Amino acid sequence: CDLLRLDGIWKIARDPENVGRAESWFAAQRPEAIDVPVPGIIQQVFPNYHGVVWYWRTFQGDLQSDAHHRVLLHFQNVDYYGEFWLNGQSIGSHEGSETPFDLDITSAYKPGAENHLCVRVLNVSATPIDGLVLAEIPHRNRADPYTNGSSQNLGGIVWSVELRRVPTVRIIDVFAQPDIHSGSFSVSVSLRNEA
What we know:
The structure is a single chain. The chain is mainly β. It is 0% helix and 47% strand. It is built from no helices and 14 strands.
């Protein structure tokens, strides 16, 4: 697959009142947005802040698009809940930290042109936001506020982001299972065919 890394300096703004969706913050970067490294965490630029933030990144559409390929946006980890827009068009959402995921952006992607990516991230806390609260999600031993023996509640676009050009027919998973009694193993291969 062809690959374009989107790591680097992005823009970020807090949304403590959770009004960004209603006010269409996905349509354009906010004037108060500041620089933030991706990969990284919200708390690098907003210490002790938990809740909703918005990220923006503009990139050149250097990967070509055609009928035999799809363009995927790959995130290694967004903590905890993310919603995604490309060029003002909703391209999906994902709940759960520490899980890599792909979003098919082929219909919204502009090859050979400037593309505007927007990500709304909810770093869940003790205060309910959009029906999510830290005590009710998988979170290992995170605590808000932080206490002895707990982990800090950190969030954001925590790991790398990539743009990938992949074939419409491709392997998406391979699982090998050994049998210790016979010395053999079985292999399960999952394919995706979007042709």
